[in-house]
Design brief:
InterPro entries: NTF2-like_dom_sf, SnoaL-like. With about 150 residues, the protein is α+β, with helices and mostly antiparallel strands. The chain is built from three helices and six strands. It has a six-stranded mixed beta sheet with strand order 2-1-6-5-4-3, with helices on one face.
Length: about 150
C-alpha cells in the first residue's frame, strides 16, 4: 500500500492518474487490503485486494491491448470527511480515446460511492459501490450523466 495520501481529494487524483497511466499498482495503492467493492462491471462484488486486483489487471490489460487511453472525471463531487473516516459520492465519467490519434471513442458515466478510512495518517478506500440507473422500459443501464 502507498503511504502518504493525507487528503481525500488526493486519493481521487491518484485514481484518475493511475487509470490514465494504466498503472495497476498505483491504482491499487489507494485501496485497503480488506476492501469490499460492489461493481456494475464484471464481477458482482470483490472482497479483498486480491480479488479486486484481478479485475483491475483485466481492465487495464484490455485498455492496453486496444491501444486506448481512459480519462476519468469526477462530477457532482461531494466529500464528507471526519478525523478517520470519509464518505465520497459523485458521478464518474470514463472517456476512452484512441492512443495514437486522440480520437474520442466513447464515454460512460457511473454513479460512485466511496467509503474511506485513515490509517497511519493515510487515506484508503475500504468500500466502493458503482451503479447505473436502469431504464424501466428497456431494462438497460443508462450511461449518460443525468
Amino acid at each position: 500500500m502507498m503511504i502518504g495520501i493525507s487528503k481525500v481529494q488526493d486519493v481521487l487524483e491518484n485514481y484518475k492518474s493511475a487509470v490514465y497511466e494504466k498503472d495497476a499498482e498505483k491504482f491499487l495503492s489507494i485501496y485497503a487490503s480488506d476492501v469490499h467493492i460492489y461493481d456494475c462491471w464484471g464481477k458482482w462484488e470483490s472482497k479483498g485486494i486480491s480479488s479486486w486486483r484481478e479485475n483491475v489487471i483485466k481492465w487495464f490489460t484490455g485498455l492496453s491491448e486496444d491501444g486506448e487511453l481512459l480519462k476519468v472525471d469526477f462530477n457532482d463531487l461531494r466529500i464528507e470527511e471526519e478525523t478517520n473516516v470519509a464518505f465520497v459520492y459523485c458521478a464518474v465519467t470514463f472517456a476512452a480515446y484512441k492512443g495514437d490519434s486522440g480520437e474520442k471513442l466513447r464515454q460512460i458515466t457511473n454513479r460512485f460511492t466511496f467509503g474511506l478510512k485513515k490509517v497511519n495518517e493515510s487515506w484508503f478506500i475500504t468500500h466502493e459501490h458503482s451503479s447505473l440507473p436502469i431504464d424501466m422500459q428497456t431494462g438497460k443501464g443508462m450511461f449518460e450523466l443525468k
